[in-house]
């Protein structure tokens, strides 16, 4: 096993900057004061990446153009 992949690894699911971090201190920086924060600890980086990818939104595309679907109400 590669030394860089050994843990612990911390995943921030709910916080200011969701992602994978190598120290608890760094991960807690992004969740301090955040409501309903969620940090989980993993032994390997692969396990952390797998869980993060499983729980993140795979359909999100930042380049996609957003269109409103609002229709004006019919006046009677």
TrEMBL record:
Gene3D superfamilies: Ribonuclease H1, N-terminal domain
Organism for this UniProt entry: Salinimonas iocasae
Domain Ribonuclease H1 N-terminal: 8-50
Protein name (database record): Ribonuclease H1 N-terminal domain-containing protein
């Amino acid at each position: 096993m590669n030394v860089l992949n050994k843990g612990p690894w911390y995943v921030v699911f709910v916080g200011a900057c969701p992602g994978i971090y190598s120290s608890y201190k760094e991960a807690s920086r992004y969740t301090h004061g955040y409501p309903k924060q969620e940090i989980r600890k993993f032994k390997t980086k692969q396990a952390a990446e797998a869980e993060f990818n499983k729980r993140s939104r795979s359909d999100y595309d930042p380049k996609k153009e957003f269109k409103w679907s609002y229709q004006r109400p019919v006046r009677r």
